[in-house]
Amino acid sequence: MLALLLQGLSLRQVEVQAAPPPGSAAARHPVLTPAHLLVPAALDAPLRRAAVAHAAAHLLYSRPAQSSVGLKPMSLAVMDALEDARVEALLMRHLPGVRPWFLAPLRAALQARGLGFAAWISRLGLALIDDHYDDDSHWVHKARSGFQRACAAHGLEDAAAFRALASVLANDLGQMRVRMEPQQDAVAAAYRDDNSYLWRHAATAEDSTPIQAPMPSPPAPPPPPAEGADAPAAEDLPPTQHRYPEWHHRSAVLRTDWCTVLDHAAPPTPPGATPLRNPARERPPQPAPGRGQRLRRQWDGEEWDLDALIDLHIARRLRQAPDARVFQRVVRTPADLSLLILLDLSQSTAEPAQPEGEAVLALEQQAALLLAAAARADGVPVAIHGFSSDTRHRVSYRRLLDFDGPLSDHAATVVRAAAAHGSTRLGAALRHATALLAPRTTPQRALVVLTDGAPADIDVPDPQHLVEDAQHAVRAARAAGTTVRALVMGADAGMSARRIFGARQVQTLPGASQLPRALARAYARLRWV
User: Fold this and answer.
1) Nearest by Cα to 146 from 224, 78, 73
2) Long-range contacts, stretch 58-61, CB < 8 angstroms, 24+ apart
């Protein structure tokens, strides 16, 4: 009977077996393949019927065997939940009578007050199907609103739009410090399959050892040290503590000594480190004309000096010796600049960039090293620092490359060894970076922030609090004479970034692969006046 029901819903010949394959996970949930549906014997009749309808929805509307290379388990689980809701919504659109089949088990599986990963997935699964379900969670509300906007803008048939939303939601769960154990069951309801139908994992794919084309980068650093050898990590040195205020926007109070920044100094460079060279093809592009000092009354130049031409004709009418310097030109002179590149090292940067597949943090590190090599070649002192946070008591600030540190293969290894963890308490990091820039004696001091999301931390429930604090920190930095700009990966963080840094000082990048070129353009605008 189940096989006939599946054939009638999907118009495909799929064999249904009422016996689970080996493995504990399959004993709890169905397993779908293009030719078989394995239904656990423990499921009752309504759940079996819902499992068949769900499998038919996948067969009709899902693309099977997608590559999962570069995706983490949490991202996969959120993508699975959105895909389950998408295909069920499509099936309910064509067959409205199946809606009660899905709603009853989703309501039974709901963990309304749970804060574990399985509870969040159960709340998400019901919220996307049941319009009458009311959840007071900001994350669930964001997921439902994003799902509805994707439906309105792209339609339920465009799976790529929902995959982009899943990446944002998984990033938010990481910022909320929701942990997912590899053995944890992340399927919302018992009737839904384990989604092995959707993915082709590297361990079972024909291309289990793919060769990825390298991104343009400086010369490769030497291989990592052997096991047991000293690694060039900033964690080897004890951090120094610094206390900074934080702005409370609701009460308009600057709370003094509110955040503790743990400053990890860059490890010393060993003797004999090889200098890092800058490939000529990665030099920053020449700045566009239009800025600089305009020199008038020149012997030659690109334009006429109209005032000088008028004076020349007047002198001729008066039979006086005319001044033949009737040209003007714009002279661009390099600015005397100190540049600090601040990398976002929060856990969300470990997620792969879409569609590149490489981690956002790896692209940040690569772009920062390219820019550092170009700036050092121009004689500009440059530093590369990074930050993350674990509540206001532990804001980790890592000086990966200091202004006076040599740019060597050792320094490149230190930058690339920086790991992603924690959250994004941006305001405290900006205040500390501004304090480190303050002693620089150059006429210009610039701070460029590379980030992939809005500020967040686990001890701050109000999403606007850290945005307002970061905006306050930016204003204080500019009042102290420091130029602050930001490059943001992902359109979702662009609105918060524009509020923090100002619309003209933010560049939003739809893809992280554009980061090296965008960072080079930002450097060119800072370098030339």
Assistant:
1) 78
2) 58/32, 58/87, 58/193, 58/197, 58/198, 59/10, 59/12, 59/14, 59/32, 59/34, 60/9, 60/10, 60/87, 60/90, 60/91, 61/86, 61/87, 61/90, 61/91, 61/156, 61/157
Whole-number Å distance between alpha carbons of 493 and 171: 12
CA terminus-to-terminus distance, the chain: 77
Predicted confidence (pLDDT) per residue in 136-186, tens digit: 888 888 989 888 888 888 888 877 778 888 888 888 887 787 877 655 555
Lowest mean pLDDT among 59-73, 198-212, 344-358, 409-423: 198-212
- Among positive and negative, which fits the CA dihedral 229, 234, 235, 237? positive
Round to whole Å and give the CA distance between 147 and 170: 14
Contact call for residues 449 and 364 (beta carbons, < 8 A): no
Question: Residue 493, Cα to own-chain centre: how many angstroms?
Answer: 9
CB neighbour burial string for 42-69, b if at least 16 within 10 angstroms, e if fewer: ebeeebbbbbbbbbbbbbebbeeebebb
Distances (CA, A) of 5 to 43, 48, 106, 204, 419: 16, 11, 21, 31, 51
What are phi and psi for residue 340, nearest 5 degrees?
Answer: -120, 125
Which residue has 């409205």 as its token pair?
96
Sign of CA dihedral 25, 30, 32, 38: positive
Lowest-pLDDT range, 33-47, 201-215, 485-499? 201-215
User: C-alpha distances in angstroms, 174 versus 177, 368, 422?
Assistant: 5, 24, 8
Answer for the pair 509, 466: CB distance below 8 angstroms, yes or no. no
The Cβ of residue 265 has, within 10 Å, a number of other Cβ atoms equal to 15
Cα separation, 358 vs 473, whole angstroms: 31
Residue of 483 and 232 predicted with greater confidence: 483
Give the pLDDT of residue 465: 92
Q: Determine the average pLDDT of the residues in 304-319.
A: 90
134 burial type by CB count under 10 A (0-12 exposed, 13-18 middle, 19+ buried): exposed
Percent of the chain residues past pLDDT 90, beyond the cut: 18
Q: List the beta strands (DSSP E) in 6-111.
A: 15-17, 31-32, 36-38, 66-67
What is the distance between the alpha carbons of residues 400 and 80, in angstroms, rounded to a whole number?
37
What are the E-state strand segments in 18-126?
31-32, 36-38, 66-67
Which of these, 400, 407, 488, 394, lies nearest to 449 by C-alpha position?
Answer: 488
Helix (H), strand (E) at residue 397? strand 395-401
Give the span between the Cα atoms of 354 and 351, in whole angstroms.
9
> pLDDT grade, residue 215 (50/70/90)?
very low
**Contact status, residue 528 vs residue 332, Cβ threshold 8 Å:** yes
Among residues 127, 133, 59, the alpha carbon closest in space to that of 91 is found at: 59
Tell how far CA 148 is from the center of its chain: 23
Measured on CA atoms in the order 34, 36, 40, 46, is the torsion positive or negative? positive
CA distance 433 to 415: 17
